[in-house]
Amino acid sequence: MENEKIITTESLTKRFGDFTAVDHISFDVHKGEIFGFLGANGAGKTTAMRMLCGLSLPTSGKASIAGFDVYKQTEKIKRSIGYMSQKFSLYEDLTIKENIRFYAGIYGKSNKFIKEKTALLLHQLHLESEADKLVRALPLGWKQKLAFSVAVFHEPQLVFLDEPTGGVDPVTRREFWNLIYEAAATGITIFVTTHYMDEAEYCNRVSIMVDGRIDALDSPAELKRKYEAASMDEVFLQLARKAARSAD
């Protein structure tokens, strides 16, 4: 892992009317890191990620993604990152090959690059014989793997994964994390949101959001030591209870 920062935020905030979805969060992500953005559903994770991806303007605060400003350079951010939503971002009425080529074309890759990389990807996923099959015919786990592969197809510096393992079985979840490790080994920075606390163990560092705020940020081992917890679930429960007491 390098010391170079690929994400920096300072008091980043998003309000919808009187509701504060993301409340003055500040953190950095280093190049080559697997960074977990954890929290319960509704904690503000997806809203924060949308700002970092250039999909939603902050209400206030600062953020830089791959050297680009989230207010002024959103299009440059979008072209420098990969993104996979919890809906997998695939077109079900297109074939596997058509999905790959469509997303590669969005990022302006050459026909030669697309052709060669498509063949390599289909081989890696063992989908050569399925290339002309509609995506809707694939099992959920395969859709997940394909969506991730498409998100990093253009070899971005940074990929955002929003609840990528939601709704799949534990074995498929673990297989998906193998793909994340493989991508990280090539130098891609991984920013992943999840509400599965056990997945925090796979990350270099994690932040834990509670009610729009970052209440903890460190390595999983250090957080468990600090909170005298046997698991990240226990860490999260302690933070949630603390937040509930504060609310009272």
What features would you describe in this structure?
This protein is α/β, with parallel strands linked by helices. It has a single domain (5-247), classed as 3-Layer(aba) Sandwich (Rossmann fold). It contains eight helices and ten strands. The protein has helices at 45-52, 74-80, 96-106, 111-124, 140-151, 170-185, 220-226, 232-247, and strands spanning 5-16, 19-30, 34-39, 60-65, 68-69, 81-84, 158-162, 189-194, 205-210, 213-218. The chain has a six-stranded mixed beta sheet with strand order 6-7-8-3-9-10, with helices on both faces. Strands 2-1-4-5 form a four-stranded antiparallel beta sheet, with helices on one face. A hairpin with a 2-residue loop joins strand 4 (60-65) and strand 5 (68-69). Helix 3 packs across helix 4 (111-124) and helix 5 runs parallel beside helix 6. It starts with a strand and ends with a helix. 38% of the residues are buried. The model has no long low-confidence stretch (mean pLDDT 90).
Task: Give the SSE map.
Elements: E1 5-16, E2 19-30, E3 34-39, H1 45-52, E4 60-65, E5 68-69, H2 74-80, E6 81-84, H3 96-106, H4 111-124, H5 140-151, E7 158-162, H6 170-185, E8 189-194, E9 205-210, E10 213-218, H7 220-226, H8 232-247
Parallel strand pairs: 3-8, 3-9, 6-7, 7-8
Antiparallel strand pairs: 1-2, 1-4, 4-5, 9-10
Keywords: ATP-binding, Nucleotide-binding
Organism: Panacibacter ginsenosidivorans
GO molecular function, one term: ATP hydrolysis activity
Helix count from the secondary structure assignment: 8
SSE series: EEEHEEHEHHHEHEEEHH
Numbering strands along the chain, what is their spatial order in the largest sheet? 6-7-8-3-9-10
How many beta strands in the DSSP annotation? 10
Low-confidence spans: none
Query: Major sheet: size, sense and barrel closure?
Result: 6 strands, mixed
CATH top level is: Alpha Beta
**Percent range of helical residues:** 25-40%
Give the terminus-to-terminus CA distance: 41 Å
Proportion of residues in β-strands:
25-35%
Question: What is CATH's topology name?
Answer: Rossmann fold
Radius of gyration: 18 Å
CATH architecture: 3-Layer(aba) Sandwich
Overall number of domains: 1
